[in-house]
Amino acid sequence: MNIPKATEFEQIKEQVSKKIISDYGKARFVNEKPAATIHSAQKRVTETTEAMALLAAGRQVPFMGLQHVLHHTEKIEKGFVLEPQELIEYGDFLRSFRIIRQLFEKNQSIAPKLHQYAQGLEDFSEIAEMIFQKIRNGQVDSNASRELRKIRGTIEKYEADLKKVFAKFFKESRYLQENRVIKKNDRYTLPVRAEFQQQFKGTIIERSNKRATVFIEPEAAARLNDRLILAQAEETAAQYQVLSELTGAIAEQMNAVFACLDILVVLDIIFARGKYCREINGQPIAITEEEVLLLDQVRHPLLGTDAVPLSLKLGEENRCMVITGPNAGGKTVVLKTVGLVCAMAHYGLFPAHNGNSSVPFLKSLWMDIGDQQSLENSLSTFSGHMSNIAQIMTNAGRNSIVLLDEIGSGTEPNEGAALAIAIMESIYRSGALMIATTHYGEIKQFALDHQDFETAAMAFDAKTLTPKYRLLTNAVGDSNAFWIAEKMAIPAEVVQTAKEYLKDRSYSFEKQAFVSTRKRTDPQEVKPEHIFQKGDQVFSAEHEKRGLFYEYLEQGQAKISIEKQFFVVAARRLQLLTKREALYPDGYDLDQLFFDFAQRKFTRDIERGSKKAQKQLRKAAQERQAKRSFD
Hints:
Blueprint: H1 9-17, H2 23-30, H3 38-56, H4 69-77, H5 84-106, H6 112-118, H7 125-134, E1 135-136, E2 139-140, H8 146-169, E3 182-184, E4 187-193, E5 202-207, E6 213-218, H9 219-252, H10 254-279, E7 286-288, E8 293-298, E9 310-314, E10 320-324, H11 331-345, E11 358-360, E12 364-368, H12 381-395, E13 400-404, H13 413-430, E14 433-437, H14 441-449, E15 453-461, E16 466-473, H15 481-487, H16 492-504, E17 537-540, E18 545-552, E19 557-562, E20 565-570, E21 574-578, H17 597-607, H18 611-630
Parallel strand pairs: 7-11, 10-14, 10-15, 12-13, 13-14
Antiparallel strand pairs: 1-2, 3-4, 4-6, 5-6, 8-9, 15-16, 17-18, 17-21, 18-19, 19-20
Helix pairs in contact: 2-10, 3-10, 5-6, 5-7, 7-9, 8-9, 13-14, 17-18
C-alpha cells in the first residue's frame, strides 16, 4: 500500500524511531513498508497490543548492548579484533538473550506471540562469561592468560627499579624544573634546567619549546627503559592474543548470533511501537477484510489535546461520503485523520479512540489535498489537482480508499461541479471507498440523490457563529462564506448586499458618474523641480551635448555635469533623455558619477565629524584666505 505524503505519516515514523534503541532497528524501521497482506497487518496489530500489555504490567525488556551491536558485528565479519569496551558491550548483548527469553516465558500468557519470537533466542552465556572474566574495568585482566600475568609482573618490577634510580636524582632538585619523572617518546626522563644539563650523564630525549628544559634519560635508567619498552610490547601482544581469542569465539557462532540479533531488533521495533501508542493514549484498532471503515471518537495523533474526536462509518450502508461546511471548519482535518489512521493501522500503530474502531485492509490509499501547483511541470493549481486525480482514477479500485479535498474547485464553478460529479461517479464505479469535501451546491445535491452516497457536515455554532470542528453525518452544511467575510472585517453593508443577491439575484447594473480627480494646471506653472532628478541623463541645448543632472539652483538655474565638469544652465533649456531608474541599480551611489573617490571620502569624513578632515578643511580655508590677501 502506498502512503500519501499528505497523511503526514512520516512525522509518526520519526517519533516511533526515537524510541528504537538499536541503530540496526532504526535503519530497518525507516525502510519498513506497510503490511502487504491482511495476515501481516493483523500480526502487527497483535504484536503492538502484546507489547503495550507488558509495558502496562511494568515489564521492561532488558535490551542490553543493543545500541551499537551492528557496528561491532560488522567489524567481526571484516576480520577486525574488538577492543575491550566493545567486547563488554557485546558480552552484555549475548547475556541478554537468556534474560529476555526467561522474561517472555514468565509472561507468555500476556504476550504469547512475542513469547513465540523469544523462543528463537539461543543461550550464549558461556561466551559472555568468558568475556567478563577476561575483561575487567575496561581492559584485559592480568589473569586472562598465564603469559600476560607473567609479563605484567615483569613490568611492575622494572617500573619499581626505575623509581629507585630516579629517586636518587631528586636529591639534586636545584638542577630540575620539577621534582618528578616525565615520560617522553616512551622513555622515562628527568626535566633538567638547560643551564645544568652538563651536570647529568645521559641522553637528551627532547627539549622544551622555549629551550629552557632538557629531558634527559640518565645512563643508569637507559637499560631499564629498554627492558621496560620491550616488556610493554610483549604485553600488547599478549593482550591482543586474548582479545583475538574472545572475538574469535563470537565469530564462530556468528550465524546463530545474527539470527538472534534479528529477533531482538524485531522486538526492539515492536516495543518502540508499543511505547509510542501508550504515549498518545492509543488503543488497539482492528484491521479487517471487510471494506468497512469505522472510527469511534478517534483523535488525530499530531494535534495532541487540541484534537476534536472524529466518528464516522463508511462502507457498511454507503460507500461514499460528501462533507460540506465552512472553510475553517475542519473538513481537511477529517480527511487527514482518516488517511493517517489507515496508514498507522497497517504499521501496527494505534490512535487514541473509544475502542470500537476498525479499518479495512487496503491495497492502496489515495489523497488529493492542498495546493498541487507545480513550477517544474508548469502546472496551475487546478491542473495539478487534475493530474493527481487522473493517477488516482487509473489505480483506485476495490480495497482502496480515496480522499478528495474541495473537488472541482479552482476553475469555473459550473464546469468544476460537473467535472467533480463525473470524477466521483467514475471512482465509485471502480469499487473504492471515497470521502470528498466540497462547497458546490450541485455536488451536495448529487450526494443527496445518490443511493450509495452519504452527506455529512461540519458542526457550526449558530449563536456564536464559530465552527465546532465536529463531523455530523447525514447532514448538509453551508460554507458560511458570509460569516467568514464578517470575521475578516468585510463591511457589514457589503455582506448584507451579498445575502440579498443570493436570494433574488437583483444585481445593480446602473452606471455611476465619477468626477475627475485630475487637477487642471497651466503649463507655464509646471515647476522644473518635478522634472529632473540627480543622475538623470539630459541634453543641454546651450552646450549641444549630453550630460548628467546634478541639482536645482535658485532662479530657475540647474547644475549639470558634462564630461566630469560642472556647468550652470537654465533648467528650462534641459531636455530629459533617460531617467536615473533606468540607468542604475537600486542603492547605487550617485555621487561617484560626479566626484572621484578622494572627494567622496573627504565629504563622508566631514559628515561623520572626522577631526583629520576638519583640520584639512581649515587648512584649505586658510590657504584661500592667504591667497585672496596676496591678490
